[in-house]
Amino acid sequence: MKSFTKKDIRSLSLEDLRCFFTENKVQAFRGNQVYQWLWQKGIHSFEGMTNLSKSNRALLQEHFVINHIDIDHQQKSNDGTIKNAVKLYDNLVVESVLIPTATRTTACVSSQVGCSLDCKFCATAKIKRMRNLNADEIYDQVVAIDRQSRLYFDRPLSNIVFMGMGEPLMNYKNLINAIEKITQKDGLGMSPSRITVSTSGIPKIIMKMADDQVRFGLAVSLHSARQNVRAKLMPFAEKFPLNDLADAIKYWYDKTEKIVTYEYVVWKGINDSDEDINALLNFCKISPCKVNLIEYNPIGDHQFMQAEKNIIKAYEKALEAQRITVTVRRSRGKDIDAACGQLANKDMLV
Ligand code: SAH
What we know:
Blueprint: E1 7-8, H1 14-23, H2 29-39, H3 54-63, E2 64-65, E3 70-76, E4 82-87, E5 93-100, E6 105-108, E7 112-113, E8 131-132, H4 135-153, E9 159-162, H5 172-183, E10 195-199, H6 203-211, E11 217-221, H7 227-233, H8 242-256, E12 260-265, H9 274-283, E13 289-294, H10 309-321, E14 325-329
Parallel strand pairs: 1-2, 6-9, 9-10, 10-11, 11-12, 12-13, 13-14
Antiparallel strand pairs: 3-4, 4-5, 5-6, 7-8
The site of S-adenosyl-L-homocysteine (SAH) has 17 residues, from β10 and β12.
């Protein structure tokens, strides 16, 4: 049974675990063994820690619980995408998605329950932010999706994108802790170059990431390089204007030499003019970058419509003429509301 009084053992660092054992007159290396059970083998019970004596297992049981996620239900798309409703220890639910292609299997992972930002085109924005996910809840989603990838597609997870529910940079500490466990040898041992964190663009934290010399990729949801247009689409951008975002991205590149990816949806009547294209070309001069033109995934309120194909082609051509890598992304999992911006656990929308 889960308890809210005992401490969640997964909030302890390796050093904390070693200390716990020494304080209880047990050799410190037992802490390493527990750490491996928790993070490498993903075990959810103390009884399963078979290289520990009965009394050590009882000691753990007495002091801790192991909170963990449960996959409540799954939906499968015609294109192979699997959307998981993930129940947390306090019964809140987030969504995580497995996206298979011929060459990759990608996990799209949530970082918050709901979202505190208010992007007008995003379904998650309609749920208020209820809380940040803990590092282990972020990590568990990756483990669960890795298992699904092996089960259904016979290969391990190849990539992770933080493009699920929430704004990862508003939960920075837990995000970084989770990525550490995902990339550590004692954890999942994945390469940080296969991980991308997507942000709506919080300048201060982008700069902090650069200072921290993180080794994963950065994607910024730009959608418009015109301040007034962007602020209408993403009202928080009033507080974090494009000029500050541009400075932060420049700083990021100078410190990390990593190319930033811009995510960009083209909407009819909103950002489909030559002025919009030129503003984007200008913005792209800040630092080396790539642009992903993402298909719009309707969220059911008819306010936004994908721009005409010829406009998207015009964006593509203009960017290519400046030698900027551009990809036009078709959405996956649309039939089960698992595509970008469609994650909104429908039970929470009342
Ligand atoms: N908060 C983060 C990550 C979550 S959203 C961020 O803003 O980047 C992941 C991506 O989906 C973002 O680029 C977001 O702008 C985009 N998105 C949101 N709603 C969308 C929709 N309805 N159609 C297409 N893309 C959408």
